Amino acid sequence: MSCLFCQIIDGSIPSKPIYQDDECYAFADINPQAPVHILIVPRKHVASIAHAGKEHNSLVGHLHWVAAEIARSKGLVEGYRTVINTGEHGGQTVEHIHVHLLGGRHLAWPPG
């Protein structure tokens, strides 16, 4: 498969693993936008949250639970942000659903 994240998950493209289980793989973003910037990606390819069906409810919840677990392990006690970009206008650059976990600095609002 030509999907960048699928290739990272299968090990074809190297990454810095942060967390992994049967449902997802989390790794450091190669272009971090905060001191902590981790991507949490499901092992099952789903193009975007817009493509997620009711059968993906538990998967989407699991991705957020993993983000919270990683935030706790990284000591992000002052707060953090989780983001799912969807589609070109939403800033999605890889067509594989993923949660961005950002923290380690004050995150302004609105984001951009």
Automatic annotation (TrEMBL):
Stored PANTHER family: HISTIDINE TRIAD HIT PROTEIN
Pfam families noted in UniProt: DcpS_C (PF11969)
Annotated SUPFAM superfamilies: HIT-like (SSF54197)
Domain HIT: 4-112
Organism taxonomic ancestry: Bacteria, Pseudomonadati, Acidobacteriota, Terriglobia, Terriglobales
Any one GO molecular function term: catalytic activity
Span of the annotated motif Histidine triad motif: 96-100
Active-site residues from the entry: 98
Protein name: Histidine triad nucleotide-binding protein
Source organism, top-level taxon: Bacteria
